[in-house]
Amino acid sequence: MADYTLTDLAKMFDHSLLQPVLTDAEMEAGCKVALEYDVASVCIKPYAVPLAARILKGSTVAVCTVIGFPHGGNVTRIKVAEAEQAMADGAIELDMVCNIGKVLSKDWSYVKDDIGAVVKAAHHKKARVKVIFENCFLQDEHKEMLCKICGEVNADWVKTSTGYGDSGATDHDLLLMRRCSPSHVQVKAAGGVRTFERVLAVRALGVTRIGATATKGILEECKAKLAGK
Question: How far is residue 85's CA from residue 49's CA, in Å, rounded to a whole number?
């Protein structure tokens, strides 16, 4: 007998509404899909956070948005300002992109201060932070150090990618991120999780959140599989 329910799997999903071409109407429809399937959150473009907050009010679906997206190159004070604005608009989860160039430069003091500033601002308002690595650009040594830093600044999740890089969530990276992160830091898989089997596979590797655009199709497959169809 399965040790999970459809609700358990649905609550792993951050329904992604970040594509640059999405219209307001499409984002509103996406929020309604998230409500229908009672997923963990909607991760929506920053300007549309008030829209999501209005639609999701009173539900168990969290409002999430992105900080420094998609390249992480904003100065720290701008990332903090983005975070403050997002929380004022109703976001309670923030997916921030680390400064990829600084990671590759191994300027770990800068990277730690950058991530830590956003985490501190978020936690002050009872929001949670997922730190996006964009693993396709990094070597294992970079990923390992980022996991260590995220643990030290008490980030809530480490996340594989924006979903807009060259690759998504590989088994290798998910195992590394779970192994190198302390227990209080969760792991989010973004990119390439598109089937029921893949959901179960990443769950078995310790993933607690999944970023997806095809949430409805994946969860319909989950529903059918669990019903034995």
Answer: 10
What's the rounded Cα separation, in Å, for the pair 160 and 214? 18
Which of the following is catalytic: 14, 79, 95, 112?
A: 95
Residue 1 lies in a domain: no
188 is catalytic: yes
Considering the candidates 79, 143, 159, 173, report the single residue annotated as catalytic. 159
Residue 147 lies in a domain: yes
* pLDDT digits 0-9 by tens, 37-55: 999 999 999 999 999 999 9
Residue 166 lies in a domain: yes
Full domain range(s) for residue 138: 6-226
**Total of domains in the chain:** 1
Is 95 among the residues known to form the active site?
Answer: yes
Query: Catalytic annotation on 148?
Result: no
Q: Model pTM?
A: 0.97
Query: pLDDT (tens digit, 9 = 90+) per residue, 79-118?
Result: 999 999 999 999 999 999 999 999 999 999 999 999 999 9
- Give the CATH number, domain containing residue 123: 3.20.20.70
